[in-house]
Amino acid sequence: MNTGFHKTIGLKVDVDTYDGMRKGVPTLLSLLRKHGIRASFFVPMGKDHTGWTAKRVFTRKGFLKKAGRVGVLETYGLKTLMYGLLLPGPEIARKATPILKQIVAEGHEAGIHGYDHVHWHDYVKTWGREKTEEVLQKASAVYEDVFGERPRSFAAPGWMVNQHALRFFRNNGFAYTSDTRGLSPFFPEMGGESFDILQIPTTLPTLDEVVGIAGTDAASLSRFFLSSLTDGLNILTVHTELEGHRWAGCLDAFVRISLEQGFTFERLIDIAAQCKNQGIVPRCRIIYGYVEGRAGEVSRQET
Ligand SMILES: [Zn+2]
């Protein structure tokens, strides 16, 4: 099942909000520096419209229950919850360019996490080719402006993707993308098409999915994540708004103990290169489905 990896962890850092970018990224950079490990950061290239998620309270089954468990107000702060509602949404990448550049300067990877996180998450399933490509062109253009080079990696907001996005990634020189939940890297099939663009799924649950269920404090939750690791390849997604904020202690303990147990951390771009060298990547279908603890659908590796 796992393609030749031994006790490897790919740490994927999702930035969802402007606050997460400004405050959470520096917190995580210093945590990674302390442990001497590298990670892959994914940043929305457009505005923070977190406030739009407020409408999910009314439209999404299970959202209220989860919001209570995660502590939405403590996690995001009132101001962020107003972005796109009463306050204009700030530009996440453009207003924080020095932080973005610091990610790369410290040896980490920086990829794209959509243009508008909320918009992508809620609508990408319904978008046709034209709309999907328009959004991805816009996000790629900002990335190119900031870094002076073409993007090589993408992680779908909310793990929602469609076949038009996969086609765009294949046609535009991406090395891999990470849009799904699953077990191990694969070449995706979606909407009846097959794509030669490596897909690296998130294999572990996220903290917001298990908080209050697998544990309630940093110690019990880090133990839960450690016990969920396999001896092959593990991809863990953390969020700047959670592990880069009040759950930093949980991630810190997880990293420290997993290093003691002989695990190594690698950037997803390096994991992608290894997958290609090993040349034994299976083809799998991407389907929409559900994961425990998460409101709404996600894209999943069919197993
Ligand atoms: Zn996200």
UniProtKB/TrEMBL annotation:
PROSITE patterns: NODB. It holds the Pfam family Polysacc_deac_1. GO terms for molecular function: hydrolase activity, acting on carbon-nitrogen (but not peptide) bonds. It comes from the Bacteria. GO terms for biological process: carbohydrate metabolic process. Residues 7-266 form the NodB homology domain. InterPro entries: Glyco_hydro/deAcase_b/a-brl, NODB_dom. This is Polysaccharide deacetylase family protein. It comes from Syntrophorhabdus aromaticivorans.
